[in-house]
Write a structure and sequence with these properties.
Elements (H helix, E strand, L loop, with lengths): L2 H13 L1 H8 L3 H5 L6 H8 L6 H15 L2
Helix pairs in contact: 1-2, 1-5
Length: 69
């Protein structure tokens, strides 16, 4: 998973309140459709369980760290 893609998703969530709300309220697949994610990466992001942006960012960070050798 590209750290740049993940960074773009997180940055959009930080600056766009509608995107952030939809990312966390069950509309994540729709939000992520604008990013060029392959299916495994999309699935990994869809499986994140987060009630707020901080939890989502922590989970994304874990994904990035898991990718590093």
């Amino acid at each position: 998973m590209s750290a740049l893609q993940l960074n773009a998703i997180v940055m959009k969530a930080l600056v766009d309140p509608d995107f952030r709300e939809n990312l966390l309220n069950g509309q994540r697949r729709t939000c992520l459709a604008q990013f060029d994610l392959d299916e495994p990466d999309l699935q990994a992001l869809l499986e994140i369980r987060a009630g707020n942006l901080e939890q989502f960012v922590d989970a994304v960070s874990d994904l990035v760290m898991a990718e590093k050798p």
